[in-house]
Amino acid sequence: MHFYSLRSSLILFVLLLCISDSESLKTLKNLAVKRGGSLSIPCFYDEKYKSNRKYWCKGYYWSTCTIVASTNTSGRTSVTDHPTQNMFTVELNSLQDSDSGYYWCAVEIGGLGTPDDKDYMYLTVSAGPAVSVINSRVSGQEGGSVSVQCLYSAEYQNKQKQWCRFKDWSCYTVGRTNTSQNSAVLVIDYGNGSFSVEMRGLQKSDAGWYWFSAGDVGVTVYLTLTRQPSDSTTVSGNTETELNGNTMVIWILLAVGLGLLLILATIITCMLRKKCNGNQIETRKRTLTTESPVTYSAVISKNKKASSVLDHENDVIYSSVTTTTKKKTLSQAVGDDAVIYSSVVSEYKV
Question: Residue 231: what pLDDT?
Fold first, then answer.
């Protein structure tokens, strides 16, 4: 009797130890994904494991599982640690049917005789998964709303549908509006293989990992939130727009002013050129009119007797040279003298 009591106590101790382990590291138990698709799996751990190595292991038994990927590895399967959130994520890509099976989220503890902390889950990869989502990553804005569309197969028609979040492991059921912090969560099952979740009045605390489940099968969804623009940002934007508009007006006015200056400079230049040309013409007229004209008044020609040798040259004798004064025109200067040769006598020598 004492033996059975001791054995019961030992079994209870082991169960409590397992529960303690599951509290320090946990993940979803049953996930489904479409063949060729991708899946993100969050694994949450205790704060004391922030600096420990994390890894992803495949196998039905923990003692014989094979490590597929560890922290900061890359490839078709990768493990990324997020110490500030006390979690690490496992990214699975290009999944095939052969990838179905049992897996373990694990944290390396180290030390002789100290087992690593872990939690298991089962992954199903098929052409038509039991549950799926249109988008596994959705985004919204603080104060706004977001909608998630989920699908499930016919055999899960009458199974319970839930929308749950990892942060506090709280779940929202179908048929009524649920409250999450300051936001409202509305879960609707249309009964034709589709299921929707609408989250309204989103707050910063609503960001993070969620999962949709039908029966015991689920699929993960990650929600990202962006901050709503503040009034100061709007005012700053309006001010910037006004400044840009004023700058444009200033540039236009400068361009118009420069154009007017160029036109005015061109007109002045043309006027100066015309004035210079007029002065030059006036000067030429004055120069021409100041010259004294010569007038020949009486030219007398006489023939001399021919000699044996004719002189081919004509002797010109000017007589009675008188000088008269003529009045000039308006453009001429008054007082210039004009010379008139009155008597010109030409004789031929004999």
Answer: 54
Max mean pLDDT range (10-14, 111-115, 173-177, 306-310) = 111-115
Please name which of 347, 341, 340, 349 lies closest in space to residue 300, comparing C-alpha atoms.
347
Contacts of 1 (CB under 8 A, 6+ apart): none
Cα distance between residue 10 and residue 79, in whole Å: 36
Average of per-residue pLDDT across 207-232: 86
Q: What share of the chain is helix, strand, coil (3-state, %, to 5)?
A: 30, 40, 30
**Which of 196 and 236 is assigned the larger pLDDT?**
196
CA of 95: how far to CAs of 58, 126, 136, 159, 163, in Å?
14, 9, 15, 26, 24
Q: Both tokens of residue 107?
A: 């944290």
Radius of gyration for the chain, computed over Cα atoms and rounded to the nearest angstrom: 57
Mean pLDDT of the 226-234 span = 65
CA 126 – CA 36 distance, rounded (Å): 9
For residues 247 and 253, is the Cβ–Cβ distance under 8 A?
A: no
Return all residues near 328 (Cβ < 8 A) that are at least 6 apart: 289, 334, 336
Question: Per-residue DSSP letters for 63-114?
Answer: GG-EEEEEBTB-SSEEEEEEGGGTEEEEEE-S--GGG-EEEEEEE---STT-
Neighbour-count burial of 294, counting CB atoms closer than 10 A to its CB (0-12 exposed, 13-18 middle, 19+ buried): exposed
Helix H or strand E encompassing 273: helix 231-289
pTM for this structure? 0.57
Beta bridge partners of 345: 300, 317
